[in-house]
Design goal:
Helix content is about 50%, strand content about 5%. By secondary structure, it is mostly helical. It has a two-stranded antiparallel ribbon with strand order 1-2. The two termini are about 30 Å apart.
Length: about 180
């Protein structure tokens, strides 16, 4: 990722200032555009790293947190019928959905680091992060859905598509 105007252009002192700013409670800020941009960049970097990971490693072998087993168990107990292949934004964002998700999310306070941070989540598990295929969710929603996608095979398409590209791009003579 190029650093033209991004976090890499901040330097050590700027990065420390940004880290400090991001650790303060939300109430300390209004709608500060610079802070919103820093959060958006951090969320994008997280998404980019995750997508590269599921493109490079068979998703069924991935562990995203130390609590993956518990997150998956609790998620499927609370949301057994949630279609994780193609998410409906209303099942995450409507007032009713927020009320259903809140207790699930709160149970990971103190267990999963940054459980309530904003993160980008793909709506369709077979597609990349694009404006049309991305929604903003909490980190624990991201973990719950992506752990389930990994275990239930919905992220296999991304890995297999990437593997085919790698196989097809090998120089002749390589086996």
């Amino acid at each position: 990722m190029a650093s033209n105007g991004g976090l890499g252009s901040l330097g050590a002192e700027g990065a420390m200032s940004a880290a400090h700013a991001l650790s303060l409670p939300a109430e300390a800020y209004g709608n500060d555009p610079q802070l919103e941009m820093m959060w958006a960049m951090k969320a994008f970097q997280h998404a980019e790293i995750y997508f590269n990971l599921i493109s490079s490693v068979d998703p069924k072998f991935l562990r995203l947190t130390k609590a993956d087993d518990n997150i998956y168990k609790e998620f499927r107990e609370k949301f057994p019928n949630l279609n994780i292949h193609i998410l409906d934004p209303e099942e995450l964002k409507s007032e009713q959905a927020k009320e259903e998700w809140r207790p699930f999310c709160m149970q990971f306070d103190g267990t999963v680091e940054d459980y309530n941070y904003g993160t980008l989540l793909r709506l369709n598990s077979e597609k990349d992060y694009t404006e049309e295929n991305t929604i903003f969710a909490t980190r624990i929603q991201f973990y719950a859905i992506e752990i389930a996608r990994n275990r239930e095979g919905y992220n296999n398409t991304v890995f297999q598509r990437s593997s085919k590209v790698k196989i097809n791009s090998k120089p002749e003579g390589d086996s």
